Amino acid sequence: MTGSRERILARVRAALSDVPRGEAAEDVRVPRGYRRAHGQGPALDLLADRLEDYRALVRRVPAAGVGEAVAEALRRRGASRVAAPDDAPEEWFASCPAEVVRDAPLGEGPPLGVAELDAVDGVVTGCSVAIAETGTIVLDTGEHQGRRALTLVPDYHLCVVRAGRVVDSVPEAVARLSPALPQTWISGPSATSDIELQRVEGVHGPRTLEVLIAE
Amino acid sequence: MSGTFIGMPAFPAAARRAVQDAQLRHNLRKATHTIRGKRGEAVGELDDWAELREAGRAIKDRTLRHLDRYLEQLEERATAAGATVHWAADAEEANAIVTRLVRATGEREVVKVKSMATQEIGLNEALARAGVTAYETDLAELIVQLSDDFPSHILVPAIHRNRAEIREIFVRRMAEWGVPAPEGLGDDPRELAEAARVHLREKFLTAKVAVSGANFAVAETGSLVVLESEGNGRMCLTLPETLISVVGIEKLVPTWADLEVFMQLLPRSSTGERMNPYSSVWTGATPGDGPQDVHLVLLDNGRTDTLADRVGRQALRCIRCSACLNICPVYERSGGHAYGSVYPGPIGAVLTPQLRGVQGPAEASLPYASSLCGACYEVCPVAIDIPEILVHLRERVASGPGHAAERAAMSAAEAVLGDHRLLNMAQRAASAARGAVPRRLPGPGAGWTDTRDIPDIPPRPFRDWWREHEKERARGDGPGAAGGRADREGGER
Description:
The structure holds two protein chains of two kinds.
Chain A: H1 2-15, H2 43-53, E1 57-61, H3 66-77, E2 81-84, E3 99-102, H4 114-119, E4 122-125, E5 129-131, E6 136-139, E7 156-162, E8 166-167, H5 170-176, E9 183-186, E10 191-192, E11 200-201, E12 208-214
Parallel strand pairs in A: 1-12, 2-3, 2-4, 4-7, 5-8, 7-12
Antiparallel strand pairs in A: 5-6, 6-9, 10-11
Chain B: H1 11-19, H2 22-44, H3 49-65, H4 67-80, E1 83-88, H5 91-105, E2 109-112, H6 116-120, H7 123-129, E3 133-136, H8 139-146, H9 163-177, H10 189-206, E4 209-212, E5 216-218, E6 223-228, H11 232-238, E7 242-248, E8 252-253, H12 259-270, E9 278-283, E10 293-299, H13 303-308, H14 323-327, H15 329-334, H16 345-356, H17 361-365, H18 375-379, H19 386-398, H20 404-417, H21 420-432, H22 446-450, H23 462-474, H24 482-492
Helix pairs in contact in B: 3-12, 9-10, 16-19
C-alpha cells in the first residue's frame, strides 16, 4: 500500500515534468471575476420564492411568533410526536400540540435510535445558513440543528430560519461555513428526476420540507 | 477491468444498432431536450457564468499542475480528521482494498451511493466474487442493477428507459433483491419512486457499511463532498458505521473557498437546478455523528497517464456534470451504451481512450464518435476543449499500427500538395477523369462513402480558369466574363 502511494506520487510528478520546477501552485492564476452575489432581489423574498419553487412549504413569521407558527404547522401536519435537537429553544414548543422527543446532547447518553427516528411524525430544527439565490438551507450540526440522522430519517422536516442566518449567495454561505463540522445542504424536499426527467418530490429523505422564516 | 464494457463492439457498430431502436431514440430525444432546456434557464440566470467557468477551469488547472502537493495535503488533513487514506494504483488494487475493508467488518452487504469511480473499477462485481452484495440506492442505478443493464448516462443512468419499461423491471425483479414491488404497481413516476423508497428503506436503516464516491475532495481541509437528489446519499453517508469512499485523484480542489465556484457550476450544469436537493460534506469522522470508521481510497487507474498528455490532461478537469452528453447530437441519437464505457458521450470519447489507451478497437473508435461540432466545449462548465482532444487522440490512433494505407495516402498527398506543378498535373488529370469517378468508392474507401458524397470535381482546375479569366479581362472582355462564370457554376452543379 505504501508502495502504491509512492508509485502514484512518482507517476504524478513524472507526468508533470513540463511544469517548471520553481512554479508554486499559487503561481497558477485563478481569475475571480465572478460576483459575490447576483443582486436578484431582497434576500428573504428570494429565499421564499426559491423554496416554493422546489415545492417546500414556506411561511414568513415575526420572530416573536415562532412558537405559534410551529404549533400551527404541526397541527396542520397532524403530528403528535416530533423529534428535536437537545438545544432547540423552549419557546419554539411553548404552545406545541405534539410531544417533543429531544435527542441526547452529544456524549451524554445514547442518541435517539434509527427506529425511534423512523417512528416520530417529524423533526423541528434551526439552521446554520440559508442561501437566498438558490433556496438552500445548510445544517452543520451546530446550534439548534442536532445530529445529521435527526433531520434525515423522519418524513417531515420543519426548519426555523432566522433572518440573520440568510445570505444572498453561495460564495457568502461558503465563507460563513467551516467544514470542520459535517454539513448537509438542503434545497427543497428529497426529489428524483430519474424517470423520464420528470421531477418527483419525495424519495428517501424527508418528503415534506416546511420552512418558517422568522423576521 | 471495466473502463469499457467487456465484449462491447466498437462505436460505429454499436451506434448503428442503437439508432434503429425507435423507442430508444424517442426516450433519448425527450430526455436530452428536457434537460438542455432546464440547464439553459439555470445558467442564463447568472450573468457571471463566463467568469465562474473561467474560475472553475483555472482552479482545476492549478490543482492538476500541482497534484502531488495537493494529494499529500489531502492525505494529511483527512488523516488528522480521523479518516484512513488508502492509495490504489489500478482497479484491481482499489477493489482489493475495498473488499478487505468490508470483510474486516464481518458484513456481507453494503449500500452504495451512485459513483462513477466504483463503476469504472467494477467494484460491485469484485465484491460479488468475494461474497458481498452491493445494493445500488440511487433510483436510476437501482433500475440498471435490477435489469442487469449498463448505465447509459453519467447523471441519469437509466435515461434510455421509459416509465413502462421501469415498471416492468420493478415488478419482475424487486422481489429477488429484497422488498417486492407493491401489488398493482402503475407506471406513474410518483408510484415508481414510492416503490423504490419502500424497497430500500429497510436496507438504509440496517446497513452497517456504505460505499460512496465523491464529487469533490478539499485538499486544505480533508473534506469530501457528495451532491445528490434523493436522500439515498445522505442515508449511506450518515447511518452506517463504516464508510468507504473511492475517489479519483482528479477530484481534488485546493481550498474550501473554491467550492463557492463549483457549487454554482455543477448543479446548474448537470440537473439544471439552482441547487441539487441534497449535498453532504464530511471531514474524517465526527464523534457521535455519522460513520466512525471512515476510509478514503485514492484511485489512479490511468489518470496519471492522462495527466502526462499535455493536450489530453484537461479532460481531468471534468466534474461529471454530463452537460456535454445532453447537448451532443451524436449522443442524442446513439445513446450511452454505444460508447461501450461507463463514461459515455463526448467526455467519454476523450476520457476512456486516455484512461485505457487506444490499443483496443472499442477505445480506438471513440475519438471518431463525434462530428466535432464543438457544442460540448460551449457547455462545459470547466471549459474542456473536447474537440481539440478528439483530434489529438485521432492523431494518436492514426499513428498506431494498422493504418499503413492511410499513412501512405497521406504522404502521397503531402508530396502533391507541397509542389504546385505536381498539384496542377493532378488536378488536370482529375478533371479529365471526372466522368469516370463512381458515386461510391470501391474497396477500403467504401466505408468513407457510406456516409458521405464524393465531392464533385470541377471540369477544370481553378488555376486554369483564373489564368484564362485574367487573359480575357486583359483583352477587355470585362470582369467576371460570362463564359468563365458559367464554367464555375457548371463545375459546382
